[in-house]
Amino acid sequence: MLKLHSYFRSSASYRCRIALNLKGLPYEMAFVHLVKDGGQQHAATYRALNPQALLPTLEHAGRVLTQSLAIVEYLEETWPEPPLLPGDAEMRAKVRAFALAIACDVGPVNNLRVLRYLKRAMSQEQAAIDDWYRHWTQSGLAACQALLPATEHRFCFGEQPSLADICLIPQMYNARRFDSDLSAVPRLVAIDASARALPAFAKAAPEAQPDAG
Ligand SMILES: N[C@@H](CCC(=O)N[C@@H](CS)C(=O)NCC(=O)O)C(=O)O
């Protein structure tokens, strides 16, 4: 049995939900509220699973896995069909580069704990924090669009979704949530619409989660 520790608005959890759905794997969820009770990710019981006190965590067959991209690659290696990475080494590197541009370069500067630090420790106004958020999101997404292949496809790197789309769609959700200007990234907006029309993505969306609210 697969068990994903998740929060509806966690984009790293959202990535894993999409990957599990694309693979057609049944899974249960344990909900960790990132705000309630001072953040349930800090509870000792959760930290025992994930010492970073971050979502997501995946439990499978007595194993405990953390870090969304490591989890997605674990799913890919354990259940190779349908593939989330291309067979060609160069294309695989390009798909990973796109995914990492989001997961390592955009995500971390806009994380809940970073935004909270700006507010509480650095005494920043909400308007300044929102500007920070939009700056890193818009510049990061513009760079991602430039990483796409010259030929336009339905998804980032072809006619099937890959790890790149798994990372992009949660980031686009966040971008919209913070009223980011997406006019410079029309290709990403079109890919986002195509992906969200697929059941695997729709079922993984924050608003479709039982803990949404
Ligand atoms: N690189 C990590 C990022 C994990 C992460 O930052 N998760 C966020 C939710 S998307 C979190 O748990 N934040 C809690 C906090 O900031 O206290 C991954 O991809 O799994």
Account of the protein in words:
Strands 2-1-3-4 form a 4-stranded mixed sheet, covered by helices on one side. It is globular and about 45 Å long. Helix content is 50%, strand content 8%. The chain has 213 residues and is an alpha+beta fold. The protein has helices spanning 11-22, 44-49, 68-78, 89-106, 112-120, 126-146, 163-177, 186-196, 199-202; strands at 2-6, 27-31, 57-60, 63-66. The mean pLDDT is 97. Glutathione (GSH) is lined by residues 10-12, 34, 39, 41, 54-56, 67-69, 103, 111-113.
In short:
With 213 residues, this protein is α+β, with helices and mostly antiparallel strands. It has helices spanning 11-22, 44-49, 68-78, 89-106, 112-120, 126-146, 163-177, 186-196, 199-202, and strands spanning 2-6, 27-31, 57-60, 63-66. The chain has 9 helices and 4 strands.
Q: Supply Rg.
A: 17 Å
By DSSP, the count of extended strands is 4
Q: Catalogue the unreliable spans.
A: none
SSE sequence, one letter per element: EHEHEEHHHHHHH
Instruction: Report how far apart the termini are.
Output: 27 Å
Describe this protein with a few key phrases.
single chain; about 210 residues; alpha+beta
